[in-house]
Amino acid sequence: DQQVKQNSPSLSVQEGRISILNCDYTNSMFDYFLWYKKYPAEGPTFLISISSIKDKNEDGRFTVFLNKSAKHLSLHIVPSQPGDSAVYFCAASAFDYGGATNKLIFGTGTLLAVQP
Amino acid sequence: EAGVAQSPRYKIIEKRQSVAFWCNPISGHATLYWYQQILGQGPKLLIQFQNNGVVDDSQLPKDRFSAERLKGVDSTLKIQPAKLEDSAVYLCASSLLLRASTDTQYFGPGTRLTVL
Residue B96 carries which DSSP code? Predict the structure, then answer.
């Protein structure tokens, strides 16, 4: 049961243009969403997050949008740079106060290639 | 601030052999996680510690996998005996504050395990 889905395995954009990475989820209990960036042979690096009480969060060139009714979030990178080329993982969590656990559920990732 | 440290970075073993991975979290981080990332998939949580106690090991194959966190700091993950399907990257992550969904997890570089 894939609770977090990234349906595009790869995306190629030109330098300077906008990159849009998409993520869908099925569990309505998720209340916190994150994007991680991963370079080869490195661990995932936290990029940006959004709480379910918001619909937009912006940090420099990166903006995450959350549409709760559609159970969909997206990451916008503007302008895209060659250094942004990496695998981007969407992740979601729902804090379990009963069990005191905070499990992150990851999507399968999207490989972004920014062409110079 | 030093990040999450892991060793070794790479390990090749034959099936039925044993292997151990080590993780040192970010200083002061009470929560530590071990994830398994199989090629083409997102990371999957194996076990979560709060200080030196286990709070979630529901997805840990306990017949062959074990983990401990000594004195609430470093942690080791062991596989005994290894199977071919254990070939994956094993990621360690840590976070500061458990009791909130907004507790960001920071990842180490991972250990790539190949089982022949």
Answer: S
The tally of domains found in chain B comes to 1
Which residues 6+ apart lie within 8 Å of B63 measured at CB?
Answer: none
Most A CBs within 10 Å, among B24, B101, B103, to test the A interface: B101
- C-alpha–C-alpha distance, residues B89 and A90, integer Å: 18
The CATH number of whichever domain residue A73 belongs to comes to: 2.60.40.10
- Domain, as residue range, for B65: 1-8+23-95
Q: pLDDT digit string (tens) for B17-32? A: 999 999 999 999 989 9
pLDDT digits (tens, 9 = 90+) for A59-96: 999 999 999 999 999 999 999 999 999 999 999 988 76
Around A60, how many Cα atoms within 13 Å sit in the side-chain half-sphere? 5
Indicate the residue type of A36.
Y
Q: How many domains does chain A have?
A: 1
Q: How far apart are alpha carbons A69 and A48 in whole angstroms? A: 21
A8 touching B, CB under 8 A?
no
Residue B90's nearest CA partner among B36, B19, B47 is B36
Domain that holds residue A33: 4-115
A92 vs B: CB within 8 A? no
